[in-house]
Amino acid sequence: xxxTTTTTxxxxxxxxxxxxxxxxxxxxxxxxxxxxxxxxxxAGVNGTLEMxxxxxxxxxxxxxxxxxxxxxxxxxxMVEGTMRLRYNLGAGAQILMAGHDLYDGxxxxxxxxxxxxxxxxxxxxxxxxxxxxxxxxxxxRLASNSAVYVGGMPGWYNGRLTRLALPSVIFEPRFSGAVRxxxxxxxxxxxxxxxxxxxxxARQPKCTGTRCRRTLNREKKSKVNGGGINGNRRGGGNSxxxxxxxxxxxxxxxxxxxxGPKCQCRDKNFEGAYCEIDKIMAEASFTGGEFLKxxxxxxxxxxxxxxxxxxxxPAGLLYHMGDDSSNYLNVGIVTGGITVTMRVxxxxxxxxxxxxxxxFDDNQWHKISVTRKVxxxxxxxxxxxxxxxxxxxxxxxxxxxxxxxxxxxxYLYLGGSENTVALPGxxxxxxxxxxxxxxxxxxxxxxKYDFLEMGKTGISTIQVYGRLQFxxxxxxxxxxxxxxxxxxxxxxxxxxxxxxxxxxxxFRTNEPDGLLFFSxxxxxHTSGIYAVEMxxxxxxxxxxxxxxxxxxxxxxxxxxxxxxxxxxxxxxxNDRDIHCTVDDYSSDFTTNxxxxxxxxxxxxxxxxxxxxVYHKKIPSGVWTLSLETGFVGCVRDLVLDGVAIxxxxxxxxxxxxxxxxxxxxxxxxxxxxTCYNGGICHEGWNRVICDCSNTxxxxxxxxxxxxxxxxxxxxxxxxxxxxxxxxxxEDMYFRFKTNRPLAVLMKTFxxxxxxxxxxxxxxxxxxxxxxxxxxxxxLCGSHLDDNNWHSVHYIRRAHEIRLKVDNVTVKNDxxxxxxxxxxxxxxxxxxxPPKDPDALANLPSFxxxxxxxxxxxxxxxxxxxxxxxxxxxxxxxxxxxxxxxxQEKPPSLVNTVTFLSKNTFIGLPPLKAYSRMEVYYxxxxxxxxxxxxxxxxxxxxxxLAELINxxxxxxxxxxxxxxxxxxxxxxxxSDNYWHSVHLLQISATxxxxxxxxxxxxxxxxxxxxxxxxxxxxxxxxxxKELHKRQSKHIHSRHGFEGCMSGLEYNxxxxxxxxxxxxxxxxxxxxxxxxxxxxxxxxxxxTKKKF
Length: 1090
Description:
The radius of gyration is 39 Å and the shape is elongated. Helices cover 6% and strands 43% of the residues. The protein folds into seven domains: 29-194, Jelly Rolls, CATH 2.60.120.200; 253-281, no CATH class; 283-465, Jelly Rolls (Sandwich); 481-660, Sandwich (Jelly Rolls); 668-705, Laminin (Ribbon); 706-834 and 843-884, Jelly Rolls, CATH 2.60.120.200; 896-1077, Jelly Rolls.
């Protein structure tokens, strides 16, 4: 009879539990000695349960659930105003506490979060977490688990304490206050879902103290609270606004607030008041030179990494996680499939996902998910389970056992690294090229990261390398590329139209001169040359079908095409008949001779790649080849015989550092201090061009002192060209000073009658040009024998001559008929051998000083210094008898900085060295060793400079070629005096190291090879992990400590503090010699003490 009564009472209590809960005005469940029952929380091993509450009581049970009376439970309660979570996952009870003074009558948020071993309690912004020691982490079984009770426990548990995993919970005081917005995520519902009560608190027995007393309220079905606890609202009933009408879309959670319903967008793809707007997710374009790096702090027992990508490239590193030891996770693309390699402790695991007839390099978005979880086997041995899915369809699972209890995170590389091929476990040897978005990383289910968003917002804990574009640029056929230097170039497919064909392209620049296209036969003897160039803002086409070249201007004389706007050029050829258009202007011409076939075998070169690329014989009709001036600007929409050419793809494969896959708007870069020492700044296409001809300085920004040479009347500089030169254009400048009114300054020589001679005649410059039977004479300047420095600048474009002496210019444009090609075998500077019968004037040799003799971009004085160590095949052989004059004046110090520590560095944009390398800087230090700079690249290419035992060492790797340059001086350069270092690539096969303007070392390689550098140009040192990976090549154990000045590379002189992509607080402006002395002395004293 007793059993029947008890059962009937329990059944009656259950029967009166309905879904109508007592609600406040804000949708809160009012708990005044009552409780609410909610569906089971299927926590499993991962899940969250959260709610908002407010109360005036410091104590009370807020929530309880368990596994049906065995072991596992969660008890959340208020204890003296602090939230306490007591829980058991099979290995004993644990307690977490968070928050204080929570009984202030205001709304607070409490959340329980489970991720494997880790459980976290968050109250408002305070979080407490702990890890469980048990092996079985599953929270009970869904079939036997209890419901979730909020506010208290049902009275029928009094007689069934064995069904409680924590029997003492029945004696806990019930919660008095309001609860709202109860949200679960669990194994059953992986997305957050707002929960509704399945009990009617108005019909529940109320409790006081620790015992319940039945007081059934039959007068009201609901109790309305006017925003505060027990504050009744007049004017009828009120229902939860979220229950009445849920306005949230795309899985958004409706949250009741004092101001009405609000939508919490749990799906990161949507935002807006009702989660109705597609959120613009952080995404980025990687071109092979950019990546992100993040350093983790601590370990994890499980993590997940989700990202979306699209690419056209069959190989590339997506991300790499690991430490400097043997723990890593590497995910990349290889041959269009997904490769995953993992090593934990002594165990390793390899996966490759490439379904039949499916590739992931199809330029479509793909989603990759990688999950790792550690499961203990014994106290020292564990399994690491690895699961990989692609597009939620293709997947693979595996595990690796070893002596570990957690996963070491170390650092993360996203999209690539400084030296991807050297990363442990990598199958993808190159950086990623394409787009990445929706990056979500979760560690232990608690720590969540969106690395792209962190990089986009500039969070200091993540490093962004390269010029990462935070937008997805779908590199297509019509996408532009930008040639950023006069030596930037790309090799494009061959123009196979033997008798007919067409080419069209769009270009944009503000620079007046530059070679746009060039192609020729396999050798100089093979018929066929095609070139398109811009000279003085006008476009010219040169064609040679084997019977002599034809040069034609194809743009309008009224309009120049270097106005910074897009222009379209097209050429159609049918035998010898040529039709060209530039925008709306059209022109026609016919090639010379009888040949109607064009044989091109080398492919088309976009830009200028250096003299060696075109063979030794340069066609005189292609003027920009003689001037060694390549096109600088943007190119797009190239169509070759009806086939669109993907320029971006070519740049990514060949040289994406100096040929960038986008077209930046040109900006005004010239400022008052851009060019130093009186140099004149001219605007280029996103670059500056400094004219140093009127200064004693040279270099891209006029900061390097020019070498000075003296001539005594018998001394000279003689240059013999590798073969006879035929030029229709010359660009020459030099500086001189003398007190003699008559002298030969320079002249060409040849077996023909052609001559170019510049002489000093009674204090004036006399220029004489003789081609065949035609001759021109130009006079300029006066009183030039005053023993002061004067500059001479000579420019010829066929018939047109410009002679500028100091600031005075004289022109001569008189027609020379068809006599415009000057033939010459060599030249003499400063003197002439005695009894020269071919001299245009019987004048004495030069007595005085000279600087900077440069003709068509070749500095003959620099070549003279280098020629003492050997002659490159593609450059003149120079013999010098004049004497080098050392200048007794302090060096010009520009952009000077002090590296205060051996363990610091800065990062600058990469060195553009694909076709030609040049780096210049000054330094002074008392330390014998240190790394000056390092730049890595593709296929383990790199370039570095360091100080080893007081001597300069340069190491360059280009493919299989290794270039090593080291000075052989008897003196150490760590003498705390300023020294200059100039690394110069003289030709395609010769490299030179100059120290203090003197040749220190020369090295050659057997054949030309383009060095492919990318990533960061590190100055003063490198990151520790990079130093460790490159320890075979970097001999110094640390970075440089001392002063550096005047760094010049890529034709620029960057401010190492203001322009640093990776700055350092241990680098200061200027060179404080006294401070460095004190620093050096203090460290020496420290060493002596120990």
